[in-house]
Specification:
This is DNA uptake protein ComE-like DNA-binding protein. By secondary structure, the chain is mainly α. Helix content is about 65%, strand content about 0%. A two-stranded parallel sheet has the order 1-2. The longest helix has 29 residues, at about 100-125.
């Protein structure tokens, strides 16, 4: 039986059935993820508003997210220019005037509008909620619905693994080669799975998966983050997104 016949590739209906009676505790906890977007906007008075929008653009790879990143990047650049040309007193303090007033209003507007605009992007990145274009497809295409449900299931399972790694290990999370009845949405444990399994689940060449396993063996200690795997193993950038989408790390 191939890996795709194992529990990692169960249809989305399994997940839908398990959550149809309400929102579970893992889903409730997941809702707080991504609130650093708002923290950056507010704490920096909009000066680094481009950061959460750039992060969303890199994760979602949609034209809308890229457009927002460019817009807020431009607004922040304008704020930096206004700050640079604002008159200052002999003590180095800014002098009230038209430029400082415009700059202050611009910063306030960037914070308010940025918080409103970043909200749907945050939900798409961290909660697996589809955007407008994805939502229309999800309502009509079973394959899209299944893919989005599996993505949400993976996020939920990663949270479970972080909270209770012993339980995750017992459920064989990220180990389709070991079988098991738990549906993890199609994850693979980079700390334990063999190279052929990593290659199959992530959809990457076997030699790239082999590099992960070789690096893991040389270290002698478990990886602690996916980014650590990507950098320490010196993996090709072209494989990063696929690995991030499927990876889980069980200590």
């Amino acid at each position: 039986m191939g890996f795709k016949d194992q529990k990692s590739f169960k249809p989305a209906g399994h997940h839908a059935h398990s959550t149809s009676h309400g929102v579970g505790p893992l889903e409730q906890k997941a809702r707080v993820r991504g609130f650093w977007y708002y923290l950056v906007l507010v704490a920096t008075a909009g000066a680094f508003a481009w950061v959460p929008f750039l992060h969303a653009a890199l994760r979602l790879k949609t034209a809308k997210a890229r457009r927002f990143a460019l817009i807020f990047g431009g607004l922040d650049a304008l704020m930096y220019v206004l700050l640079a040309i604002t008159p200052r007193s002999d003590q180095g303090q800014t002098v009230d005037g038209p430029i400082s007033t415009v700059g202050g209003l611009l910063a306030l507007g960037v914070v308010i509008v940025g918080c409103l605009m970043v909200t749907p992007l945050r939900r798409m990145v961290y909660d697996g909620v589809p955007g407008d274009d994805q939502g229309q497809l999800a309502n009509t295409d079973p394959a899209v619905r299944a893919a989005l449900a599996a993505r949400a299931r993976r996020d939920e399972t990663r949270k479970l693994a972080a909270d209770d790694p012993l339980l995750a290990r017992e459920l064989h999370v990220g180990r389709p080669d070991l079988g098991g009845s738990y549906d993890d949405g199609g994850l693979v444990d980079l700390n334990g799975a063999p190279a052929p399994v990593i290659a199959e689940v992530c959809g990457i060449p076997l030699d790239v998966a082999g590099t992960i396993v070789d690096t893991r063996s040389r270290r002698g200690t478990p990886f602690t983050s996916v980014d650590e795997v990507l950098v320490v193993a010196d993996l090709p950038v072209s494989a990063w997104d696929r690995i991030r989408d499927r990876a889980v790390l069980i200590p």
